[in-house]
From TrEMBL:
Cofactors, names only: pyridoxal 5'-phosphate
UniProt-recorded Gene Ontology molecular function terms: transaminase activity
PANTHER family in UniProt: ADENOSYLMETHIONINE-8-AMINO-7-OXONONANOATE AMINOTRANSFERASE, BETA-ALANINE--PYRUVATE AMINOTRANSFERASE
Protein name: Aspartate aminotransferase family protein
Length: 442
């Protein structure tokens, strides 16, 4: 038991940590107390190189003075404004700036507070769009195996991670999943999009045949599946999905929570793959990980269907108390300015080559069964120990942390996604540390 006066860093019982084995964590807590640019400072005063941009979100590096100042100024000037029936200038400005950098055609923005909320918002927009068009029979949603779309009910229903779903009983009905595209027997050690597997997109045709296109509202995919281990789609796969969805009047939703804001060396994954979805989901890098915020971009056609819809549809019945929150909007504006001033949204194109080559130099380390990369994101997949599918990567995570490098693991996959300000010496430190760590694994 604890009360507020006794909750100190020595009492770790009250905070039920997300996605963390609390019992293990309490035995050897790892705490960050500061951060600057590419590094965290631990509670013990150690510097830890951030190999993951926090949780794929701190794209411009930590504690950037202009973003800090924008938040401070906004907090003192206008802390909060009601989100319904009222506005404040910065939310409108941020929507405009987002539309400026988004793929052409995505020109209206709904704000949320996280990636998970952006996913729910996108799914609801898709369903409601068909209804306002008088096509309400289109209610099925199609996701993909090994997809992560946040933790809310819509997101775990279309998501494809068994452990995120199995504890929660009946989820959304009318959901189908396409197969994932990860194929180590054909595509191991690929650089960029792998060669084999384009025709996996045709699985969508199979689902259409099964249910009839007239019942399907939308398909949702991450351009590159991040959280389940950096699964890069085969060449041409997303284009083919786009063709099939278009042919059947199905909306295509890209979940760009990770791939948005420069991660692949282009502003959005849509730009990298040359495929524009009907709805694009973002969060994370939008405010450089500072104030929680997400944004969902939709085409004019979707937006106008609501604006010109039947008489009773005078508004979209959806939104959050904090939609377009002033401090988040100020953080977003300062973040986009930083990305622009420092060309960060395309920096991953050049640095990505160096990063990719460096990662692939680890190919001969023990237990490595795959290395893959695209832009400034990559993964090292390790052979799992039978009966313990996470043991090696988690052990690598702990050893790397002790050696001063933050990596992320999922199953026996190590994922790397440094802030986009990363330079060659950081990449060298990251990879040299990992080489030592991998060589020390059982
Ligand atoms: N979609 C994708 C593709 C993500 O990677 C994430 C978070 N890793 C989410 C949605 C959920 O975002 P949040 O944790 O901000 O709710």
């Amino acid at each position: 038991m604890s009360n507020s006066s006794s909750v100190t860093p020595n009492d770790l019982s009250a905070f039920w940590m997300p996605f963390t084995a609390n019992r293990q964590f309490k035995k050897a807590p790892r705490m960050f107390v500061g951060a600057k640019d590419m590094h965290y400072t631990t509670a013990e005063g150690r510097q830890v190189l951030d190999g993951t941009a926090g949780l794929w979100c701190v794209n411009a590096g930590h504690c950037r003075p202009n973003i800090v100042e924008a938040i401070q100024t906004q907090a003192a000037e206008l802390d909060y404004a009601p989100a319904f029936q009222m506005g404040h200038p910065k939310a409108f400005e941020l929507a405009n700036r987002l539309v400026d950098i988004a793929p052409k055609g995505l020109d209206h923005v709904l704000f949320t507070n996280s990636g998970s909320e952006s996913v729910e918002t996108a799914l609801k927009v898709a369903l409601a769009y068909h209804r306002v068009k008088g096509d309400g029979a289109r209610s099925r949603l199609i996701g993909r195996e090994r997809a992560y779309h946040g933790v809310n009910f819509g997101g775990i229903s279309v998501g494809g991670i068994v452990s995120n779903r199995k504890m929660f009983g009946t989820l959304l009905t009318g959901v189908d999943h396409m197969p994932h595209t990860h194929n180590l027997s054909k595509n191991a050690f690929s650089k960029g999009p792998p060669e084999y597997g384009t025709d996996l997109a045709d699985e969508l045709e199979r689902i259409v045949t099964l249910h009839d296109a007239s019942t399907i509202a939308a398909v949702i995919v991450e351009p590159v599946a991040g959280s389940t281990g950096v699964l890069i789609p085969p060449m041409g796969y997303l284009k083919r999905l786009r063709d099939i969805t278009k042919k059947h009047g199905i909306l295509l939703i890209f979940d760009e929570v990770i791939t948005g804001f420069g991660r692949l060396g282009t502003p959005f994954g849509a730009d990298y793959f040359g495929v524009t979805p009907d709805i694009m989901i973002t969060a994370k890098g939008l405010t450089n990980g500072t104030i929680p915020m997400g944004a969902v971009l939709v085409t004019g056609e979707i937006h106008d269907a609501f604006m010109n819809g039947p008489e009773h549809v005078i508004e979209f019945f959806h939104g959050y108390t904090y939609s377009g929150n002033p401090m988040a909007a100020a953080a977003g504006l300062a973040t986009l300015e930083t990305y622009k001033d420092e060309d960060l949204l395309t920096r991953g194109a050049d640095m990505g080559d160096y990063f990719g080559e460096a990662l692939h130099s680890l190919a001969d380390c023990p237990h490595v069964i795959d290395i893959r990369n695209i832009g400034l994101v990559g993964a090292i997949e390790l052979e799992s120990i039978t009966g313990s599918p996470t043991q090696r990567a988690f052990s690598a995570f702990l050893k790397a942390y002790d050696a001063g490098v933050l990596i992320r693991t999922t199953g026996d996959i190590i994922a790397l996604s440094p802030p986009l300000i990363v330079d060659k010496s950081h990449v060298d430190t990251l990879v040299d540390t990992l080489r030592t760590v991998l060589k020390s694994l059982e």
